[in-house]
Structure formats: C-alpha cells, structure tokens
Amino acid sequence: MTRKGAGAHIKTFANLLSAQAHARRKDKKGPGRQRPGADAANNYCWSLAGGGFEAGTDYVAAFKEHKRRHGITSDGNGALSMHLLVILSPGWLAETGDPRDWQGNPRVWQLIEEARRWAEDAFGQDSVWAVRYDADEDGAGNVDILCSPVRADGRAKARPKLKISVNKALQELARRHGRQKSYSALQDSWAEYAQRHLDACIVRGEEGSKKQHLTPEEYKAKVAAEQELEAARLKHEEVQRILEAPPPTIPTITPPTFSERLAPDRWIAEQNSRLAEAAGQAAVRMAASDHERHRLAAEMEQARALSATAEKISRERDLARMKADRMADDLKAEKAASARLKSERAEALRKAEALAAEVREILEAPALDLVEEVAQELGLSPAGPFHLADDGRRFVLDAETWEEPAAGASGIGAISLVMQVLRVRFEQAIRWLTERFGLARVQAEIAAVAELNAPAPGSDALRRPEL
Q1: Average pLDDT over residues 312-340
Q2: Whole-number Å distance between alpha carbons of 34 and 37
Q3: In angstroms, rounded to a whole number, what is the distance separating the alpha carbons of residues 51 and 293?
Q4: Quick one: residue 61, left, alpha or beta (phi over 0 = left, psi -120 to 50 = alpha)?
Q5: DSSP assignment, residue 455?
Q6: What is the pTM of this model?
C-alpha cells in the first residue's frame, strides 16, 4: 500500500512540489490519465490547508501546517512524508453505485473516511495531512494519503525533540504484525481494519503474490502490446489457412491429390510425361489430318498453362511459409525482450533495496556517547567531577559536550574531543573514530553535532566548538 519505486515516499521539497502538480493535473502525466470530459476539480480533496480542490491540493501549505502543529523546526535527513495508496476492490464499491461517485455512493465516502482513520491508527494521531480520491481517471477504489509520522529523536539525548520519522513508523508497524517487511505489514493492517470497519467479507490480497501494480501508462502499454500480439496471432492463422487451402481447379486437367501438392515437381513431371506420350501419339496422326494437328496444339497449350499454375502454387506456398517463420521470429524476439526487461527491473529493485538498507543503517545509528564510549577508548579515567588523561590533563565530560578548564577549551561531540586529547587534526580524528566505532556511527555523530550546532530560534549565531 505504500507506492513502490519512484514516488514511494516524498523525500525532498521537489518531490512535494511534483505531488502537488500531479494532484492539480499540471504535470505531464496527469492530463493523459483523465477520462474524456472529466474535470479534476470534481475530485475529493482535503488537506490541513483546507477543503476543496485549491486548498485540498495545496500540499506545500498543508505540510508546513503539519510541522507547525507538531512543533517540528527541521526537515532532517529522512523522508518528509509517505505516500499511501489505500486500495479496495471497485466491485465492492459498485454494489451501491458508481465507484467514482464519492458524493453519491455511500461506500465510496465510507472508504475515504475509514482510510484516513486507518492511517492515523497505524502511524499516530494527526499524522495524516492530505487525502485525495480521484474521480477523473478510468480506475477507482484508490485513496491517496500523505502521512508524516512524528516520533521523538533518540539521538539528541540532552534535548529530545520531535521529528518526522517514516522508517521508524514502518518498522514499528512491521513488528506489531510479526513481519520482516513493512509492505506486508501494511497490507495486513489495512485488511484487518477494513474487515472490522467496512465489511467482514473483505479479504486480503493474495499472500506472496509476485504481481506488480501497474501505473496507468504501464497498463495502457500492456493493453496495446496484447492487441498487437492478438493481431499477429490472427495473421498467423490466416497464413495457415492459405497453406492448407486446396489449389485452384485447372479446367480439363485432373486436379492433383494432397500428396501430389506436397511434391509438385514430381506431379508436373508425371503430367509432362503423360502429355508427351499423348503428343507422340498425336504426331503420328498429324500426317493424316489437320484437325488432329490443331487438337494436339491445344493440348500442348494446356500443358504449358498447367506447368505455370503449378509453379505459381509452389511460390505462394514458399512465400506463406516465409511469412509464418518471420512472425514466429518476431514473437520469439518479443518474449525475449519482455524477459530481459523483467530481469532488468528486478535488478533495479534489488539495488534500490540495498541502497535503502544502507541509508537506514546510517540514519538509525546512534550518536557517540562521550562518557560511556569515547572516554574509555581515549584512556580518560574518572576522578571525581573530572576525567584524567594520561598526561594529567583534566576534562569535564557529559554525554555530548566536553571542557578542559585549564586550557580554556570546550566543544561538542566526539570528534572535537579526540582532536583535543590526542592533539590531532580533523581527518586523523575521523579515522581514529571510524576504526573503533565504524563509519555509520561516525556519520551519525557528525549529523548529531551539526544539529546541536544549529542556531536557536531567533538567534543568528552558530554554536561552534572551541578547540
């Protein structure tokens, strides 16, 4: 139920603008998906910016209002929102009216309301900030929901705050349903909710199905390909009929049998032999009568016509076979191309999942703790309110900041502390931390320090470590 591939999540502000343009049918694909005479202004549209087509599709204003209500000041590094496609069979909706009539069909309106309630039940109260039901396209039964789950930031230990966390919300849902993949958990969650709140007869889609949801453009291309394939099949049947049809009847000449048609050269030779024998007999009679000579000439002309007809049948048969072979090759090439595209798509999905896993590892790695982790690796020993270095220097540490009173130095995070204690440069400190804690932890540390160095509201100054 989250979209797959491009468009699965709204990751950047540019994605947000693209989603808004599509909702208003101002993108390249939107107008092409509309039914003839349909108007997008008649779609159901709602957002935190208001109801109706204009306000309901103002995703930029709605997203900003969502952040304001939750006190979120930064977009962070993760996705801004998830795009949920909450789907129900159009057949169930059609039992009470037109599946696209969200104003007159009670089941359509019930689907829109319950889809929003399900999303907030699954990802948190007030997490949904936009809902849309398209009535201007050929399909029906899909509710588009934009949802930004809000969770506490576990990395900022000193000052916990709220942030949008799509990955964490999906992981929580997967754990609740005992699933390893969040996509399966989404289907489980919506199916169970729909059975309780819409109709007990509703069943979940096929478990483990390999079928891919097609975009409208992909569906139209699939239909066109099937039509071309059907046309090729009909042409192939026509060729077969040509091959199996009997040859035209030759007047005054005994038609060849089926076996003789398969070997026309032998049949022609036999006819020529028979006619040659008749010609020989006629030659004997030519001396006695001019009438016999004229009759022999007519028989010879028929023999020549018969030979030409046989050659024409042979050429037509060979041409028909060539056409049939070419069509078979075209069908084989089409199947090979389809298999290749399927393999390339599977490989692209695999690479995208691998990249997403790497990004999740970086985003979910905790920042380094100066007291419990870094101080021990540096050999700083606790002594009352201080931590002592091997050379006798004293440091005051907490989880995120440090201070060396005697030197009048202070800073934020593990990188600046390593630079101060070991007296090394930034690159050497990064290498030292990576060898001991791994690259993902160090990247998380850099992100946490950057966040702590951000200016407070109303302030233009940046907090910078004093090294």
Answers
A1: 79
A2: 8
A3: 102
A4: alpha
A5: P
A6: 0.47
